[in-house]
Specification:
Blueprint (H helix, E strand, L loop, with lengths): L1 E9 L3 H12 L4 E5 L13 E2 L11 E12 L2 E14 L1 H14 L3 E4 L3 E5 L2 E4 L4 E9 L6 H6 L7 E10 L6 E5 L10 E5 L4 E8 L3 H12 L2 E13 L7 E2 L2 E3 L15 H21 L4 H33 L4 H8 L2 H8 L12
Parallel strand pairs: 1-2, 1-9, 2-6, 4-11, 9-16
Antiparallel strand pairs: 3-5, 4-5, 7-8, 8-9, 10-13, 10-14, 11-12, 12-13, 15-16
Helix pairs in contact: 1-2, 1-5, 5-6
The structure holds flavin-adenine dinucleotide.
Length: 355
């Protein structure tokens, strides 16, 4: 049986849930298809976000940090943030967004994996046929909606692996380790949850497993197997993130910080823009490729396009300096880290409002 709606969203992560909420609030019938049987699981995130994530219930904030320590071998420097960064319960965050979306009338269908298109309908692994006047791809870094719509995602794919480790940690300090042995091209992180627990993980373009084992050995810490997670992240700037009747949002649109690879804040910003774009198209019943580009692509690029470019530059800069360990010491001695703390914004969105 075919099920019709105004907005059909593939992916029940933060981007799909937030976009769905904005569309449904305007009175349009919205359905989200999520392949997993539970929202927020598996939990694939370190959960480090800036204040721009907006208001959250207190129980979702597990820790607050104000210092980032950049390490390379024995060299390091610290950058202090005037505003604390939050370490959040990511599964709880997704569930909170889902509750809000349900309250606004969004229908979330779990265990529905989209496998293709047939006769204008999205087809799921359970044999469901769904049709929306507009289709939103919020299905992450390996988006099937992007593939079906001919919207090419960049080839920059990184693999992440993270565990929850027990040890002794500084509760207000996040460590970023740039040693090539831990990551070929990005970094490893230690994000404290408390004085005795931390999320320890890394991103790399090759096999992350031997590198994580080495990292844990070097840090001399053990991990609780239950907390082991792995996923991929894609970064870069997509040429197009919309086409006729289709838009991509969040990781599917590579709306991810190219330096830290965090995506939750940009997802929050772009979901609102995607929600507005979808409602504008639905209200006018007009979905041409040019119109979608005008009301969606150009708006999100104006908002975070500059930040994406800055992030890419920062990424290139660190990939150069990590080859020169003394540069980390020089940064500390010359006081450049103090300057960085004043001028750098964790989301590269200085002067932008909180969304
Ligand atoms: C290890 C790791 C650590 C991270 N740490 C941070 C961090 O500290 N801070 C931060 O800001 N960001 C972090 N990120 C990035 C962050 O998790 C993403 O940017 C964020 O999840 C993007 O949300 P999204 O909704 O766009 O995509 P996703 O969260 O990936 O959601 C996509 C959803 O679509 C579903 N889906 C996919 N394909 C289909 C299909 N065919 N049919 C139906 N459903 C489908 C998936 O099951 C998933 O639920 C991290 C990522 C990883 C992997």
């Amino acid at each position: 049986m075919r099920i019709d709606c105004d907005a059909l969203i593939v992916g029940g992560g933060p981007s799909g849930l937030s976009t769905g909420l904005f569309i449904s609030k305007k009175g349009f019938k919205t359905i989200i298809l999520e392949e997993h049987n539970e929202v927020g699981r598996p939990e694939q995130c370190a959960g480090l976000v800036s204040w721009r994530i907006g208001w959250l219930p207190q129980h979702l904030v597990l820790n607050k940090v104000d210092t980032a320590r950049f390490c390379l071998g024995k060299e390091s420097f610290e950058v202090y943030s005037k505003k604390e960064m939050l370490v959040i319960d990511r599964a709880g965050y997704d569930k909170y967004l889902a509750e809000n979306a349900l309250t606004e009338g969004v229908e979330i269908r779990l265990g529905e994996r989209v496998v293709g298109l047939k006769e204008g309908c999205v087809v799921t692994s359970k044999g469901g046929h769904y049709s929306g006047r507009i289709l939103v791809g919020a299905d992450g870094p390996n988006s099937i909606v992007a593939r079906l719509a001919g919207l090419k995602q960049p080839n920059n794919l990184l693999f992440a692996l993270q565990c929850v480790a027990n040890g002794v940690f500084e509760q207000d300090v996040v460590e970023l380790r740039f040693d090539p042995e831990f990551s070929r091209d990005v970094f490893a992180w230690v994000i404290p949850l408390s004085r005795s627990k931390a999320r320890v993980g890394l991103l790399t373009s090759d096999n992350p497993w031997p590198r994580l084992r080495l990292l844990l050995k070097r840090l001399n810490i053990g991990y609780s197997c239950g907390g082991l997670i792995g996923d991929s992240i894609r970064f870069g700037i997509m040429r197009r993130t919309s086409s006729r009747r289709v838009i991509l949002v969040g990781d599917a649109a590579c709306q991810v910080k190219p330096f830290s690879l965090g995506g939750l804040v940009y997802s929050r910003i772009c979901s609102r823009i995607a929600g507005d774009a979808c409602t504008a198209a639905l209200e006018r019943n007009f979905f041409s490729e040019d119109f979608m580009a005008e009301i969606y692509d150009s708006v999100w690029r104006k908002t975070i396009g500059g930040a994406l470019k800055k992030g890419l530059r920062m990424r290139r800069f660190f990939n150069t300096v990590r080859r020169i360990p003394v540069s980390f010491t020089l940064t500390r001695i010359l006081g450049l880290s103090l300057l960085a703390g004043r001028v750098l914004d964790p989301d590269f969105l200085r002067n932008s409002p909180v969304y």
